[in-house]
From TrEMBL:
Organism in which the protein naturally occurs: Rostratula benghalensis
Matching InterPro entries: Ser/Thr_deHydtase_PyrdxlP-BS, TrpB-like_PALP, TrpB-like_PALP_sf
Entry protein name: Serine racemase
Tryptophan synthase beta chain-like PALP domain boundaries: 10-338
Key word Cytoplasm present: no
Pfam families to which the protein is assigned, alphabetical: PALP (PF00291)
Reaction catalyzed: L-serine = D-serine; L-serine = pyruvate + NH4(+); D-serine = pyruvate + NH4(+)
Amino acid sequence: AERRLEGRLHRTPLLTSRGLDRLAGRRLLFKCELFQRTGSFKIRGALNAVRALVEDSQRAGKELPRAVVTHSSGNHGQALACAAQAEGIPTYVVVPWTAPRCKQDAIRAYGATLVPCEPSDKSRAETAARVVQETGGVMVHPNQEPAVIAGQGTIALEVLEQVRDTHRGAAKRGYPRCQRHSRFLSAQAPEVNAVVAPVGGGGMVAGIAVAIKALRPDVKVFAAEPRNADDCYQSKVRGELTPNLHPPETIADAVKTSIGPTTWPIIRDLVDDVLTVSEEEIKAKAPCSLLRRATRLVWERMKLLIEPAAGVGVAAVLSERFQAVPRAVENVCIVLCGGNVDLSSLTWLTDLPGEAE
């Protein structure tokens, strides 16, 4: 995956915030995937999957796939359309009618054909299977396709490389290891003891866990999800795959899907714990009165317009439950998974006179 993606993606920055450090009581690093192509981490997996299809076709001396098909609440669909467009491959994206309009528009902007469906995992899967049959396309699952999972795992490789390279530079210049003076990861930044990633279908956290545990098994991996969509947590507790029974109600639209049969064994074996957060912790206030809105905190303190799914990881680290994590887990990397915000849902925009769009 790393080879296929080289030179095709942005190397997203690690940022810091002393204000959020104080609220969390730990040193935080923010992996800013909202600055990635298409506005989220999803391009990593989508591009790896498409490039793998292209390479397989070239090795076999065959034509490229007639089309690629997927289902998505927005970010993966946009990423797959972008990756496939570069190879001249048509894209069909099955999208729940509840998906934010901005994400639907972004998918269309990359030339994809949208196929609406009901907002349930079953409807998404059945509609995608029908489209595959009708078009003769290849299904690229948003989170269960191994090539997609491998692509998402490059997030972890970058984090470890960025921290390692920074320390090497610090040692050459004689800087102490654990002092920081800049919003950007500086020469004095700490090593990472844990990575926290939001989980929906589980492709990102599974890919991160595989990479982290292979290279740094001492580093903890935490998944974070809305309490209203806690299938990953329930699966961990019960020791078996336990999908959501009904379409979850959460503002974090990008993590509404359930983990699946490919990601579940990886999460079961390699993810250290699953943290759940309430809607109030995502968009309102965390249990401590000092902890204001998780998503809004990042907007206000770091000036980063993340989407609510990215706020899930922040809320988890600021939650009361995370305080029980041993203090030795001092340096925590939170993956800010995306920034495809539905601007029409923001109060400051909808309160303006005239049209909101």
